Amino acid sequence: MATGNPVGKKQPPEEQRLGPVLRRRGQVQASTTDQRLLDERAPTDWVHTDPWRVLRIQSEFIEGFGTLAELPPAISVFGSARTPVDSPEYAAGVELGRGLVEAGFAVITGVVRGPWRRPTRAPSRRRASRSAWVSSCPSSRG
Length: 142
Prior knowledge:
4 helices, 3-stranded parallel β-sheet, 38% helix, 5 strands, LOG_family_nucleotidases, TIGR00730 family Rossman fold protein
C-alpha cells in the first residue's frame, strides 16, 4: 500500500514538545539540535566565529564585574524612555535621583533618555558616583 512517503524517508511529527513549548506544522523540526550540530554536511562557520564571540562576551562580563566592584553602595533604577518631559513620572525621576544621591548611593540605569535618565543626571551635577549602562534594546533608543 503506497503512503506517498518514499521508503526510508522519515516525516517530521505533526507536533513537537520542547519543555513547555508545543511546536506545530512549520515550527516542527525534522532533526534535533544535537543532530544538526553533529551533521558533518552542515556549515562549519560557527567553529571559527562562536569561540571568539564567547571570548568577547566573557570579557564584557569581566569588565562589568570590575566596574561594579569599585562602586559604592548602589541602586539600580528601571523605567521607560518614552515618558514625556512634562509628565509627573518625569518629575518623580528627578526627585528620585536627587534623593538617592543625597543619601550617598551610586545610581545604575540602562536608559539614557526619558524620565529614568534623570536619576543618572542628578549624580553628575553633584559629582557623586554614577554608572549609566546603555541598553542594547532597540525599543529603548526611541
